[in-house]
Predict the structure.
Amino acid sequence: MTSLVLTPGQLPRRLEALRWTHDVRVRGVLDDGPAVAIVGARAATQLGMDRAHALAKHLARGGYRIVSGGALGIDGAAHRGALAGGGTTTVVMGSGLARPYPARHRPLFDQVLAAGGALVSMLADDVMPRPGTFVQRNPLIAALADTVIVVEADINSGSLHTARAATRLGRMLAAWPGSRGCDRLLAAGAALIEDERDAELIAAGTPRQRSAPALDPMAARVLAAMHAGAFSVDAICASTGLAVRDVLRALPSIESSFLARKQ
């Protein structure tokens, strides 16, 4: 089964609004209805996967299409939750559509199509997955959604690339506290999500508000860079001009400030 190639001018409206320039290959149905991306770690905890499944199921029942990357862990749980909620889901692959990855998710991908969802890729159909192709596809996950929720992530998780893309593209960004990557996103200003009700508020564009942290000037510079989408130490250094040691000194105070607000 060959894929349909959508070129600029044939793309969903949300991609056209971003002046998207890449071709998008699609199998199944890709619509412009309200959509929420749910992403996170491959090596996720069972609690994290349960949370992703519950959020996706709840949002799918409310009429939201669930977008994720098809990977093991949080992504797979989100797709399965959407199906359990009787909704549709979009899988944005880091491989060509004729080379679905991971192989163990082939039955899941078949279920996605049978339920009216879509498999999507920016790559030619026969391209094998490589580490760089997953980073390449992450902006498309954010672009196809109105909101991006990171459920569980370490500080080196690929889902933080999706979070940066969400910030750059003007999408709502939210994170579930408790993992280092998510706590860093929250410290940088991501919306807080801790249950299905929060998911509804975030998807509606009205997240719970938190007061800004009281930080010293150097930490405030680091936080401003994180607000702008610089989440790695190297990116923060490049944005602020600070030395690595200064950034590393500031990060714990930012994260501690966030943790104090949770208590």
